[in-house]
Each structure stands twice: as structure tokens, then as C-alpha cells.
Write the C-alpha cells for this entry.
Amino acid sequence: LWMKDEDGTYIACNSRFEDFFGAKEKDILGKNDYDFLPAEDVEFFREHDKNAMRADKPVSNFEEITFACDGHKEYLHTTKTKILDSSGKIFGVLGVGRDISELKKADDFLKKTNEILEMIATGEEAHKVYDEIALMYESRHKGMRCSLLELKEGKLMHGGAPSMPQEYCEAVNGLEYGPEVGSCGSSTFT
């Protein structure tokens, strides 16, 4: 939550906004976006502030921001509305941002799932489909690497593993599966 006057000077903010700038409210008030952000970001925010002050109703937009406090990113749904003084003159803008990162991830996952289903329906080669599935799960679970294998005539066959070393793909291809044949062989057996 934040408030700016008509010139873009901050007049109030909450602790969550402090995290965005990596500064305390006392160090934010009286300053503007140029004191904290790259010029291209400032122009984006300024344009949305102006739109909100011209509009007769709140204005919403979506934006991905990086928090200065620790560098993490969030996808926000932001609503801005003009603030009027007691005489009805525009005084500034009030902004409220809501973290919708999990909703965005779920939407992206659904879109990617639909793309993969389309690949299957149009007869795309299996290894390409497997690679897309692996990449989809890796993007959802940072730091994870995914491998998809086929079971053919009692042996594990490389299916797709775009982030795994070629040595892994070669080593697993043709392995027999069973309860004591590494994680791949054991999970396939189970």
C-alpha cells in the first residue's frame, strides 16, 4: 500500500512497500520513484499513476516486481485510484498491490499443459513431448531436474531429460529395472 501526491512524491506506505524499496518509510517519504528504481520502471509506474488520476474509477494492471530487500520477485495485481482533496481537486494516487504469484504460476502451468496436449494430439515425436513435460516441471520446482523414461521389454529407455547431462541419458538407457536398480529402476519397479 502506498500513496503519492500529484507530482509522484511518496506521502505514505506500509511495511510491505518498504520491502519493495528495501528502505524504511521515513526514508521513502518525500522522495519519488527515481530515487529507488531504474528509469524504465519509473516511466511504467508514472504512466499508470497518470492513468489512475485521469480515470473515473480505479485502474488495475499486472506487473512483476523485484523486491530490493532480498531480490525475490512477485507478480502483482495492482489497483490505483486517484485521491481528491477536500475541494475535489486531484491530490494524488493511492496504490494497492496484491501478490498473485501462485495464481500466475498455476495459469502458466495450465497453459503449458494445454500446449503439451496439443503436441500429443498432433503426433509430435515422443522425445519432444517428454522434454517439454520435464521443462514444465523444472520451471515449477526451481532446482529440480526431471527425467522421463520409457519401459520397453523390461528395460528403461531414455525418453526425455533436457537438463540432465548426456552421460546420464546414456547410462540409464537400456538399464533393467528392479527393486535394487538405483532410483530409476526401483521407482519403475514399484
